[in-house]
Amino acid sequence: MRSAKRPYVLRVRGERVAETRARIVEAIMRLHQEVGPRNTTVSAIAARAGVERLTVYRHFEDEAAMFVACSQHYLELNPPPDPSAWAVDLDPARRVQRGLEDLYSFFGRTSPMFEKIYRDVGEYASLKQIMGQFDAYLRNLADDLAAAWPCDKATARRRMILRHAVKFATWQSFQAESVDDGHKIELIRQWLSG
Fold it and tell me: What is the pTM of this model?
């Protein structure tokens, strides 16, 4: 009789631990989006998650572990564009149009988070590593868009333009000038054909 009860108790305890961790990760993510990593404290995380500070430390040994859990959770909720959606389009201009539409829509939805993350990234080595992976994804995305063009003298120039076009900072600078996504993409297409 006791042996049947013990697995149940362990399962329930495991579910509670997982639920607590999920609340902490959600709290970290929301605080990073609202105030950024620089202004997110363990006390604020604990208060938002409804736990004690010690509970936060039990689940995450350091900021690096928090950054990893937060970024994984955030990208599960907000997946970046999948290049395979437009990779089949052989027309270079259409491929760029579709790729940048998807990417700029993603940036529009996620800008409150990325504004704070890019602002604070230089202060944390572990966050720099995570964002380095995201920046590599963006470079690969740009190279995929550039691959639709034939290899000629303008290939390197197009790749450079597209690597600039896929950066969050580029999208953000256009936003600061009140340029809508359609006009952003049209400007980039003009740079590519110029």
Answer: 0.87
